[in-house]
Design goal:
The complex is a heterodimer of chains A (281) and B (313). With 281 residues, chain A is of the alpha/beta class. Chain A is 44% helix and 13% strand. The chains are: A alpha/beta (281), B alpha/beta (313).
Amino acid sequence: MTQEQVKELQEFALQIRIGTVECIKSRGFGHIGGSLSVADALAVLYKCIMNVDPSDPHKPDRDKLVCSKGHAGPAVYTTLALKGYFPYEKLKTLNQPGTDLPSHCDRKKTPGIDMTTGSLGQGTSTAVGLALGDRLQGRDCRTFLIVGDGELDEGQCWEAAMFTAAKKLTNLTWLVDWNKKQLDGYVTDILDTGDLEKKFAAFGFDACTVDGNDVEQVYEALSKKPGDKPVAVILSTVKGKGVTQVEETMSNHSMNVGQDVFDSWLEELHGKLDALQGTGR
Amino acid sequence: MQIVYTGELDSRQFKNVIGETIEAIMQEDDKVVWLDADLQSCSGTNKGKGDRYINCGIAEANMLGIAGGLSASGMKPYAHSFGCFASRRAYDQAFLACGYAGNPVTVVGTDPGITAAFNGGTHMPFEDMALYRALPEATVFDITDVPMLVDVLHQAKDMPGVKYIRVPRKTSCQVYADGSKFTPGKGVVIRDGSDAVIIASGIMVHEALQAAKALEAEGISVAVIDPITVKPLDEELVREYANKTGLVVAAENHNKIGGLTSAVEHVVAGMMCKFGYVAVEDVFGEVGPQDYLRKQFDLTSDHIVRVIKGLKE
C-alpha cells in the first residue's frame, strides 16, 4: 500500500467521522462512540476491499456487510452516502419521523444495507446465513461481519462463531470492534470477554489483533485471502475515536449535547482533514 | 373440498410425511434448504442427502438467524425444531431476522400442545400460536391431517413473511382427501349445521367432529369449521356462521390466550351470538400419555358437548 493510498483511506475515514457527527448533530443525540470507533474499518472495507456497486445495491454476487452492532448505523449510512448509494443530504434525516435512516440498520429501508440489525447478537447468525447462501449458490463473494465487543456477551454470537468455523465458512470474515466499552462501562467490568484473539482461535478461526484505527493495519488484515479457516480480526479501537471530547467522555455510547458542542467536534475533524490534505481552511 | 373423515387414525406418521415432502420440494426447487437443530431424526429429514440439509446443532436462535440470512441471499429456508424451541426459544430471531427484516422463512414446530406427551411440560407449547400470531405478516397453520400438511409445506415455500406450521410427529385422523388444496385465510366447512358452530384447528378437528356427531343424536345440529390458518383467520366465514347459528365455540390444543380462541373471540365480539371455548386454561403443561393429557386439559369431544349444551341453556 502506497503512502498516497494510506492518505486516501485516512481522508475517507475522516469524512465518515464528519458525516457521522453531522447526522447525529441534526437529531441532537445518538450513538456516537461506537460509530466513530468503526469508521476506519468501514473506510477500508468500502474503499479497498468490498466488491460493491452503489448503482446496483442488490447485485447477488456483491460482497456484503452485516453491521451486527446495528447502532453504528450513522457511520455505515455516512459511508454509503459517500459511496453514492443515496444523496449525502439524506444523512440529516437520521431518526426523523418517516426517515429511511433509523437508529439501527434496516435492509428494507436503506439502499446498501445488506442486513437488518439492532437486537445485538443477531447479525452474527444472519451473516452466517448470507455467507452460506452465497456458497450454496456458487457465488464468489465475501461477507464481512462487524460485531461489538460488548455484543459478544450475547450467547448467540458464540453459536454463530462455532457454526462459522465448523462449517468452514471462509467467505465470512468477522471483525470485532474491540473498543473496550459497552453501554454501562468498561467491558472488563461489566462482563469480561477475556482474550478475544485466543477465544476466536480456540473456536477454529484464523484470528489476529490489529490497531483498528490504523487503516494500514486493517487493510493488511482484510486483504489477505483466507486460507482453510475463516478469519476473525480483532480491531483494537478507541470508542469515540477522532473526537477528543468523545474519546475522553466515560459514558460515550450515546451522547446528547448542544449544537455548539457538535460544531466544536466538527471543527476538530475538519482541522484533521485539512492537515492531512495539507490545506488551510 | 372432499371430506373423507371416518374417525380412524391415519397409518401415515406426520414426521415421515415431512421428510418425504421436503425431499420432493427440494427436487423441484434448488433454492430450498432445510435447517434443523439436532432433531432431523424427529422431523423425518435424517435420510436427506446433500448440502441443503443443514444441521445447526442445538442452537435454535442461531438457526433462525441463519434462516433469515439464507433468505436474504435468495434461498428458501425451512427451519425445524420442537414447537416450544421453534417459537419461544428463538422468537426474537423469528421476529427480527426473519419477520421485521423482510426475510421469508418457514418455521416448522413439531409436537404442539399435548402431543408433546412424554417430553412433558418443558416441551409442551401452549403458547406458540400466540407468539407467532403477534408477529406482523406471519401466517400460522395448525395442521389437521396429512393432506393438509403436504399442501401447506409446498405452498409455504413461496409465501411472503414468516410461516409457522405446527404439526404433531405422530399421526391424526385423516379429514381431507389426498391431494386436497387449501387457501391460507380460507376456512373449510367440514360439516354444516344450524344450531352451533365449532371452529376447531389441528388435533381438535377430530374432537369437534365427534362432538358434532354426538350432539346430532340429541337433535342439535352443529357445524364444524377448520380455519386452516389461525392467522389470518377467515373472519368472514366465522361471522357468517355466528349469524347463522348464534353459538360459536373455538377448540384448540393451545392456551386460551393468544391462539384460536382469542382470534375467534375478536371476530365475534359485539355480535349477537354466544361464545365459548375448549382450550387449555392459563396453565403449564405436564408429562403423560396424550390420552391422559387430553382429559387432564379438557381437550375432549365430551367437553365440547358440555360447553355447547351449557351455552344452549
